[in-house]
Design goal:
Helix content is about 75%, strand content about 0%. The chain is built from eleven helices and no strands. Helix 4 packs parallel to helix 7 and helix 7 packs antiparallel against helix 10. It starts with 9 loop residues before the first helix and ends with a helix.
């Protein structure tokens, strides 16, 4: 009998590849993921433009009567509101659709690093978050005349770029639990109430006291506190909030990976 030679598994192929080729595979996947979303303006434009529109109306036009601190406060809050969207929808909806269409199964069979697919989506979300924050900073400093030091502006940008990661993990979890048609609606049920209950649209002091007590349960609340510190509105340690966000992200990511291993 003739022996049958089976093709090497993707993981074995990766272990045989030199590190330079593995790094190139990661970069190629990240580049293709970003290009794919840039070529889908109907998906990306709402993610990028809605936070700017809301800030223009409520933070710039209506905030003038409340003073410079109101525009600064809303810059941080609407910045958080804006960076949540690329993580939740850019990651969660696309993952759900690609699972339904079999693209995720195809990518698993390809000789590529197993983490390149997820890394590409994370980098796409981080890039979109950076664009959102830079757009809001330009509106705040150019139109609302909000005075920010370069350090404060850089701190807010870093908060947005890194703060999108826990929401990528949450979007990934939702994308593994629901099919492509159901994921957008479910993410809306997560996105909007979380933003409202975290004080992103108006100060928490305007909410009933019972709801104020539950605000720390939401990751958006902790990211908002970090953003408010970044722009100089509040003074408090940010490390506890960063640790909570890291815990949220790790927990969501672990649950999502477990779900992907079980059901694909």
């Amino acid at each position: 009998m003739h022996a049958v030679t089976l093709p090497a598994a993707p993981s074995a192929a990766m272990s045989a590849m030199p590190p330079r080729r593995v790094l190139g595979a990661y970069l190629a996947e990240a580049r293709s993921e970003c290009l794919r979303y840039l070529r889908a303006p109907g998906f990306m434009l709402p993610i990028l433009l809605f936070p700017g529109l809301f800030y223009l109306v409520f933070g710039v036009l209506m905030g003038k009567s409340e003073g410079a601190d109101a525009a600064r406060y809303l810059l941080a809050s609407y910045g958080v509101f804006g960076v949540m969207s690329p993580g939740l929808f850019g990651f969660g909806v696309s993952l759900a659709i690609e699972r339904d269409g079999g693209l995720l199964t195809l990518k698993r069979a390809l000789p590529m690093p197993p983490g390149a697919y997820l890394l590409g989506k994370m980098l796409m979300a981080m890039a979109a978050a950076a664009v959102v924050v830079l757009m809001l900073l330009a509106m705040a400093m150019g139109i609302a005349r909000v005075a920010l030091t370069p350090v404060q502006a850089a701190a807010l940008l870093a908060t947005g770029v890194l703060g999108v990661l826990p929401f990528c993990a949450l979007g990934m979890l939702v994308g593994t639990l629901f099919k492509g048609q159901g994921a957008p609606g479910m993410l809306q049920l997560v996105y909007l109430p979380m933003s409202f209950l975290s004080g992103l649209w108006f100060p928490l002091s305007m909410l009933p006291k019972l709801l104020q007590q539950f605000a720390p349960l939401w990751p958006s609340y902790h990211l908002d506190r970090v953003a408010l510190v970044a722009v100089g509105i509040v003074r408090e340690p940010v490390l506890p909030h960063v640790l909570v966000l890291a815990g949220f992200g790790a927990a969501f990511f672990a649950l999502a990976l477990r779900r992907l291993r079980r059901v694909g």
